[in-house]
From TrEMBL:
<keyword id="KW-0028">Amino-acid biosynthesis</keyword>
<protein>
    <recommendedName>
        <fullName>Homoserine kinase</fullName>
        <ecNumber>2.7.1.39</ecNumber>
    </recommendedName>
</protein>
<dbReference type="InterPro" id="IPR005280">
    <property type="entry name" value="Homoserine_kinase_II"/>
</dbReference>
<comment type="similarity">
    <text>Belongs to the pseudomonas-type ThrB family.</text>
</comment>
<dbReference type="GO" id="GO:0004413">
    <property type="term" value="F:homoserine kinase activity"/>
</dbReference>
<keyword id="KW-0791">Threonine biosynthesis</keyword>
<dbReference type="InterPro" id="IPR002575">
    <property type="entry name" value="Aminoglycoside_PTrfase"/>
</dbReference>
<dbReference type="GO" id="GO:0009088">
    <property type="term" value="P:threonine biosynthetic process"/>
</dbReference>
<dbReference type="InterPro" id="IPR011009">
    <property type="entry name" value="Kinase-like_dom_sf"/>
</dbReference>
<dbReference type="InterPro" id="IPR050249">
    <property type="entry name" value="Pseudomonas-type_ThrB"/>
</dbReference>
<keyword id="KW-0418">Kinase</keyword>
<dbReference type="GO" id="GO:0005524">
    <property type="term" value="F:ATP binding"/>
</dbReference>
<dbReference type="Pfam" id="PF01636">
    <property type="entry name" value="APH"/>
</dbReference>
<keyword id="KW-0547">Nucleotide-binding</keyword>
<keyword id="KW-0808">Transferase</keyword>
<feature type="domain" description="Aminoglycoside phosphotransferase">
    <location>
        <begin position="28"/>
        <end position="262"/>
    </location>
</feature>
<keyword id="KW-0067">ATP-binding</keyword>
Amino acid sequence: MAVYTDVPPDELAKFVGGYDIGEPVSCHGIAEGVENSNFLLRTTRADFILTLYERRVNPDELPWFLGLMQYLAQRGLSCPRPVADRAGVTLGTLAGRPAAITTFLQGAWPRRIEVPHCEAVGAAMARLHRDGEGYTAQRRNSMGPAAWSSLLDSCRATGDQVQSGLIAEIDDALAFIGPSWPGQGARPVLPRGQIHGDLFPDNVFFIDGHLSGLIDFYFACTDWFAYDLAISLNAWCFDETVTFRPDRARAMVRGYESVRPLDAAERAALPVLATGAAVRFLLTRLYDWLNTPPDALVTPKNPLDYLGRLRFFRTCAAPLEWL
Ligand SMILES: Nc1ncnc2c1ncn2[C@@H]1O[C@H](COP(=O)(O)OP(=O)(O)OP(=O)(O)O)[C@@H](O)[C@H]1O
Ligand SMILES: N[C@@H](CCO)C(=O)O
């Protein structure tokens, strides 16, 4: 369960009193997620999400994330909208943590992924890329290639306990990715802008098979659009046995291109971008696996699911034959 910080009732009442959203009726910790503490806050007027920012979020960057969500929501993208307090401020402090209240999004994430989900996610991602264009403030990808070596170093001593040879395999992948990444040497740069950066199934809500919205923008950043697609190809297009599902991947790319066609350089870069995305989530999962105490109220995700993805994408020739 991802509730790292308890909120005393008197502090909650004082905090909510700063907003014009009614009186708090209940506030329950939400079991899902691994990054932040999330609560379903029910007031006399409506349901909201209360988030206390924990681990990987740099508090100085919170105004950028909240501003992006506000901007995208104003352009019609269905995503949580930060709620301003009576002074017009969307970011506060609660129980010693940075905290914000956002609107509650109806729907549920798909427990069983079907091909049409993938097409809908592709289209929604492309709309996010298009609609984010007027949000000009940039945020460097703090989980991009520049961060991977030090993450790997922090796992180096104990990583092979998870699987023998794992660290050497990641070292080898990084040596391949480094010079092959867009913008390196003669490699072309790609179209870039605001990306979600973590568009996994548990961050996309559906109602009756229709996509109802996107949540969790706290890894959003300014990066190659095609890298966002590469992240979601990893997250959505493998089954439970970590077998690649080309039907899902084709549907995702089709959905994406119904809004924003990929150019030739983006298509050619997809294998290395997908390899990099596999390394990124393998590393963060590995770090969490090695550093989460057994009695913690959060269940770390299995890093080896991403080793399977990494191996798959490393064997793909460019351009991907299934596109
Ligand atoms: N705006 C929202 N509307 C409705 N439910 C929400 C909203 N935001 C979060 N939730 C609920 O809280 C859960 C966890 O939220 P979120 O994914 O943002 O947490 P996280 O700790 O950042 O997780 P992750 O591991 O995906 O990074 C979601 O799966 C969803 O059930
Ligand atoms: N979506 C990530 C967790 C949040 O960073 C994962 O599944 O590894």
